[in-house]
Every structure is written in structure tokens, then in C-alpha cells.
Specification:
Layout (H helix, E strand, L loop, with lengths): L1 H14 L4 H8 L3 H9 L6 H10 L4 H10 L17 H13 L5 E4 L5 E4 L1 H8 L9 H6 L3 H5 L3 H18 L4 H14 L16 E5 L2 E11 L6 H4 L2 E7 L2 H11 L1
Antiparallel strand pairs: 1-2, 1-5, 3-4, 4-5
Helix pairs in contact: 1-3, 1-5, 2-3, 4-5, 10-11
């Protein structure tokens, strides 16, 4: 078991591009002890597994693998969002989404599958045949209504690829995200990205609907201090109008 733990630890240390010395200093243990753990000459305690996992920002489901490899029970569970224990979390999510009206807001999981939307997002995405349970990743990557509706799709898709690569790297690689990266990258190969003399402050997503262009930029938030596997992956994206015309149109429609 110790050898398997050591292999996992070494792999994740490599993914985070940390030397044994750097990991030891960050986790407040000696580089020699890190070496002994990786070679199986030393067996970690449970607190040590958790400490190293936290230092390496290892996803919680992988932390369970490390714990089991070291001979301990899993510490993290993946609760259903409808679990009674998450009542206050659901309330916080609903509050955040609905308070963001008349602007769109969406909650989604690690694979960009929609969990909940507010009234504005439901209407706007519904017009593109997207609803709860659908994958935003598929909607963006596939040649369909979303790509047709976004007038600056190449710029948006290019930023999405960069974001997906960061998310996949954090997870140590993810088949769903990596497939989305490949599909978007292939599509971008034939698309022309606008050239800028000077980059704007934000790259907006410009949706064309009924002859009107709605321009958005967004912020993304996650739940803090969560130790649940599924909840740690939930993201809430709040979209804001990037100009007065978009703001006025949404205020008129959703208030």
C-alpha cells in the first residue's frame, strides 16, 4: 500500500511541478521524509496524507484514493445536491441566482452541466434549446444554435479552451473536459479570431437575438470551506451587461 501511495504522491507532485524540497518546505516536513514516502520507506499518517493533499491542492476524490492507498478510510463524500444536509447550501445558491435577476446566472458542475438557472438565464438559454441538466460544454463545442448566436464565437471559444485547460490540469486530467478542449480546438482551427491593436479590458460574449446584440462579461464563484466532493466542483457564473443597451433590454424584459 505504501508503494502505491508513494507513486500517487510522486505523480501529483510532478503535476504541480514541485520538487521534493519545495513540497517539504510548503508542507513543513523534510525533503528526506517526502523521498521516503515516495519510495515506500516510510508510511504516512492520516494527517500527513491530508496535509500533503492540501499543499498540492489535490481534488477531494483523489485525496480519498491517497488515503486508501495509505491504508485509511476515505474522508470525503459526494452528497446529492438535494440531500437534507445541504438545505442551507441550496438556499444560498437560489438566493444568489435569483438576486442576480434581471441579469443571467447559472450554477453548473465540474463538467459544465447545468444544475440551476435564474429566470433571465432560463429564458435566454431556453431560446437556444438549453435547459437544466444540459451541458454548456457540449452547447459551446458543437456546431449548433449557441455557436450561431454568438457573433464573436472564436474569441469566446478561445478563452473557453484556456479555462478548460486550467480546470483539467487542476483535476489531474479529466476525460470530459479534455474532449471538450479537443473539439473546441478543432473548430477554432477554421475560425478567424479578431486582431486587436490593444486588448480590451474584458472579452465579452455577444449574443444576437431578434436583431439585438446582448453583450456580457462574467464572474465565477464557488463555495468556500466545503469538504464535499460534488459541492466543491459547483460553480456559479454571474453574467453582467457589458453596455447600456444590454442592461436596458434586460431590465425591461425581466423586471
Amino acid at each position: 500500500m505504501s508503494e502505491m501511495f508513494g507513486t500517487l504522491l510522486k505523480d501529483w507532485r510532478g503535476q504541480r511541478r514541485m520538487s521534493q524540497l519545495e513540497l517539504g518546505m510548503a508542507a513543513n516536513v523534510s525533503a528526506r521524509h517526502i523521498s521516503f514516502l515516495e519510495t515506500g520507506r516510510a508510511k504516512p499518517s492520516q494527517p500527513m496524507v491530508l496535509q500533503l493533499s492540501e499543499t498540492l491542492t489535490i481534488p477531494r476524490n483523489i485525496r480519498n484514493r491517497l488515503l486508501r492507498a495509505a491504508g485509511f478510510s476515505s474522508a470525503y463524500s459526494a452528497r446529492d445536491l438535494n440531500d437534507q444536509e445541504l438545505e442551507y447550501v441550496r438556499a444560498a445558491m437560489d438566493w444568489t441566482l435569483q438576486r442576480h435577476n434581471p441579469f443571467p446566472a447559472v450554477a453548473f458542475d465540474r463538467h459544465w452541466r447545468i444544475l440551476k438557472m435564474n429566470t433571465c438565464a432560463t429564458a435566454l438559454l431556453g431560446a437556444l434549446n438549453i435547459g437544466d441538466g444540459d451541458s454548456l460544454l457540449d452547447a459551446f463545442a458543437n456546431d449548433g444554435p449557441v455557436r450561431s448566436a454568438i457573433s464573436n464565437w472564436p474569441e469566446v471559444a478561445s478563452h473557453m479552451v484556456a479555462r478548460l485547460r486550467t480546470e483539467s490540469a487542476h483535476l489531474g486530467g479529466d476525460a470530459v473536459l479534455d474532449a471538450g478542449i479537443a473539439k473546441l480546438s478543432d473548430a477554432l482551427g477554421s475560425e478567424k479570431i479578431e486582431q486587436y491593436n490593444e486588448l480590451p479590458a474584458v472579452i465579452t460574449a455577444d449574443y444576437v437575438s431578434n436583431g439585438l446584440t446582448l453583450s456580457f462579461f462574467s464572474t465565477i464563484s464557488q463555495f468556500g470551506s466545503t469538504e464535499d466532493i460534488a459541492l466543491a466542483d459547483v460553480k456559479i457564473e454571474l453574467m453582467f451587461p457589458a453596455n447600456a443597451e444590454t442592461r436596458d433590454a434586460l431590465v425591461a424584459s425581466f423586471t
